Amino acid sequence: xxxxxxxxxLLEAGCDEAGxxxxxxxxxxxxxxxxxxxxxxxxxxSKQVKEKDRNELRFFIEKNAICYAVAMVDNxxxxxxxxxxxxxxxMHKAVDKINVKPxxxxxxxxxxxxxxxxxxxxxxxxxxxxxxxxxxxxLAKTHRDEYMQKLHxxxxxxxxxxxxxxxxxxxRKAIEExxxxxxxxxxxxxxxxxxxxx
Length: 198
Prior knowledge:
This protein is α/β, with parallel strands linked by helices and 198 residues long. It has six helices and five strands; from the N terminus they run ββαβααββααα. The chain has one domain (12-188): Ribonuclease H-like superfamily/Ribonuclease H (Nucleotidyltransferase, domain 5, 2-Layer Sandwich), CATH 3.30.420.
């Protein structure tokens, strides 16, 4: 059972990211502030929710949240600053965009770079514990999946409409056959050993 809030005094925003472990594409993050009576029976960590249900939840969250925002950091910046910093940057960008400023950030995971003067609390597996983090995980995941569907049209050989840029067997085989494209994360050392770039 998800908890509505971590505490009752401060206005909380839940924050989470999607796409951190992918071979290709950006990392997305969302920040969400929910009303106290927010409830949906399917809401959970996005990894535990079916795609059809995630899309239903996205619509419900976007309609009923006090406010929300989604932001991304692209693969080129990921290669420059590393994926962990890029994940934090995407969260910061999402918080920048929400039009009601939170007084406390709930972060999924065990690390975070402080956002301005706003206090934060890191919660391991927070997307399975708190509604606002779960909602952020749903929005980050569905917005990223939608983005990867668009990239798939440019590079259909990698099957991003199905694997969303994760390192599935089909994706790895496509990299072996066709090499990397402009949307792959070059810093992830994902080229097969037998491919030599000149």
